[in-house]
Fold:
Amino acid sequence: MDTKPILHIVIPCYNEQEVLPETNPMFLYKLNRLIKDGKISSQSRIVYVNDGSKDQTWELIKQYSKENNQIIGLSQSRNRGHQNAVYAGLMESLDKADITISIDCDGQDDINAMDEMIDEYYNGSDIVYGVRNDRETDTFFKKTTAQSFYKLMDIMGVESVYNHADYRLVSSRVLREFKKFDEVNLFLRGMFPLVGFKSTSVFYKRHERIAGESKYPLSKMLNLAFDGITSLSVRPIRFVTGLGVGMSIVSLLIIIWIFLRYFTGNTISGWASNATLLSLFCGVQLISLGIIGEYIGKIYLEVKHRPKYIISERTDK
Ligand code: UDP
Ligand code: MG
Structure:
């Protein structure tokens, strides 16, 4: 009887028809290598989650799973975004696997780090974060924006592992606890640290995308940062309150100054300073309202309790 842990490699795919034919054999090779090395059970599987792709991605996944029973395909009913796709794969693997590793399907994350991740699991870690130790292959723009992303998360009070994306080993023990996190707004890399358990990091070199284009343009990255912050931290709201207090003190000083000018008979009315102050305060108020509105929007979505994923097709049933 095979007593090794069953591994599910969870791979989200969105419009990846160019890259899948390249990376599918790589993932399969890795899985079988790990089985041969006696690290994981022969019942281990690759789980592709099609995130409502508009190209041939799902057809490819179906074909792969027909050719090889080590491959399972799940298809989301529509595009729900990377985080929800990963979540769907993890939750569907919860009862079938002992450990899961989530990884992007574009070959950027070094599959060889999986060996070390599994070793760390054997050493007693329930979560193993894959961390990039360099960004040489990223463009200057991607590098600086990504680094500012992690800095911003930190300043805004979201606990996350620096330079860790969603390449991660998680045991089913952690996933069972994670399932109890009821929030609809998902920011996985900031949520797993909250679950606790013994965790560690393994470092790897990040490669260039094998084919196709990044599905994470700056706009999506900014959205992710904003969602991450407003889902997991109330620091921005505190910041708004602080700003309000600060501005009140400033305006109090200004009022004192105006009175002094008035009593010294120096009352030439300055339209410019008035207008400047007015616009300044307007700006601050709008920003503050915007941030508060963002949180109300989040609450609105949470209250609805919509399902976090909907699988419309699958190859394993
Ligand atoms: N992805 C997804 N849904 C989306 C966008 C992306 O499932 O709406 C997947 C994509 O197929 C890939 C992973 O998420 O496997 C990361 O995307 P990408 O490589 O484009 O991001 P980058 O590495 O450039 O940050
Ligand atoms: Mg990528």
